[in-house]
């Protein structure tokens, strides 16, 4: 079955950025910022060596959901869009197939504070709703990862859940978790 992202015309431009599908050649550029302490601390799977990262990055299922964020031809971050089924009762489960997306992002800290992450995630949400026809997007993070949840709020996502010490961090132990979401009808058409 063809992945929904395969149906779009790439690359997609924003005011300052270019979003495109990830390719094996993006390995070194993404490793450069993903291994930095500021990003390594919060990413879901923090590989310790380049070889481990290469093995994980080159998996077909990983590349399928990964988009690259470029600024003037330089890779400055990546985005993830995992298309998912919504929870549904058995009688209507077919109507819940592939209708929502889980969003993720990692930006090179050298490019932080300039609005690039906000611009890229807004574009990803717009792709999700206006090009792919999803009905809902969501994202999760540790409560301690304030830049991530602040970004979710900047792009208009709603905090739906604050859980108490339910999320296990690799070095910090059990932390609070946050879940944010946005429905297609809440997304302004002009975005």
TrEMBL record:
InterPro entries: Acyl_CoA_acyltransferase, GNAT_dom, N-acetyltransferase
Domain N-acetyltransferase span(s) in chain numbering: 17-185
SUPFAM superfamilies: Acyl-CoA N-acyltransferases (Nat)
Official protein name in the record: GNAT family protein
């Amino acid at each position: 079955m063809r992945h929904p992202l395969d149906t779009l015309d790439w690359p997609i431009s924003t005011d300052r950025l270019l979003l495109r599908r990830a390719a094996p050649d993006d390995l070194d550029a993404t490793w450069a910022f993903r291994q930095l302490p500021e990003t390594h601390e919060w990413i879901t799977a923090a590989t310790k060596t380049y070889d481990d990262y290469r093995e994980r990055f080159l998996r077909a299922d990983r590349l399928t959901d990964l988009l690259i964020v470029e600024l003037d031809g330089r890779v400055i971050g990546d985005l993830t869009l995992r298309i998912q089924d919504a929870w549904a009762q058995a009688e209507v489960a077919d109507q819940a197939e592939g209708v929502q997306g889980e969003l993720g992002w990692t930006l090179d800290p050298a490019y932080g504070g300039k609005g690039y992450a906000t611009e890229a995630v807004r574009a990803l949400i717009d792709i999700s709703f206006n090009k792919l026809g999803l009905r809902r997007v969501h994202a999760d993070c540790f409560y301690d990862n304030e830049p991530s949840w602040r970004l979710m709020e900047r792009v208009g996502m709603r905090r739906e859940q604050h859980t108490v010490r339910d999320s296990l961090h690799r070095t910090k132990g059990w932390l609070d978790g946050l879940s944010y979401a946005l429905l297609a009808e809440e997304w302004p058409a002009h975005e």
